[in-house]
Each structure stands twice: as structure tokens, then as C-alpha cells.
Write a structure and sequence with these properties.
The chain has 131 residues and is mainly alpha-helical. The chain contains five helices and no strands. It has one domain.
Length: 131
Amino acid sequence: MGFEITKDTLLKVSGVSAVAYCTFATVAPREFHKTFMSTGTPVSVEAWRYEGIAGLMAGGTHLLLSARAGHTELKKDALKVAGAGWLALAAHNAYNGYQANTQPREIATANAIGQAVLGGLCLYKGFEHEI
């Protein structure tokens, strides 16, 4: 018997990750910007708050689904959507750090790796036994 990550655990990890990241963006958008973006990149407090609220909604949905018993197909579909979203975020961070130079490379790289791993795991569990 080996180690296995359940769908519920992965939804919790996705939810907590989104909520933590987006709470920072919503509550302290200027500090969030200073942490994740390069000096000289224009800041929009309103845009960070909007992005944060949308991410809180997505993360909260993942946490809610993880707390419900059953609903296996719904959870698999949610993991597919989450996986695609995390991979899109990973690509966007990589672009920001290596092409647009709007994020420091070390921040962009760390974000992209973490998001790509989470996205890949979400897709794996979402498509498990279907391929």
C-alpha cells in the first residue's frame, strides 16, 4: 500500500492555496504588488482586489467541495478545471518573469513551479481512470 493523495485532499490544497494567495491580494494589494511584481511595474489596487475576490470565490468552492461526501464526478470535474487554471497561472508567471520582466525571476519561477505541480496533480486526479 503506497501513499495516495485523495481528490478531497487535493481540493483542500487547491482551495487553501487560492484563498491564502488571494486574501493577501484583496486585503493588502499594494504590499502584494511589492512582493510579487518588479519595481516599476504599474500597480492597480482595484485590479488586485478584483482578482483577489475572484480567487477567493474559486478557492472557497474547492474547500466546500472537499468537505462534502460523495459527488465523485463533480469533484473530478472541479479538479480538471482547477488543473487547467493552475497551469494557466504557471504559464502566466513564467511569461511575467522571463518575457515581460514584470516579475522578479525568482518569484516567477517559484510561483510557476508550485502552480504547475498543483495543476498537474489536479489534472491527474481529475482524469484518473478515464484515459
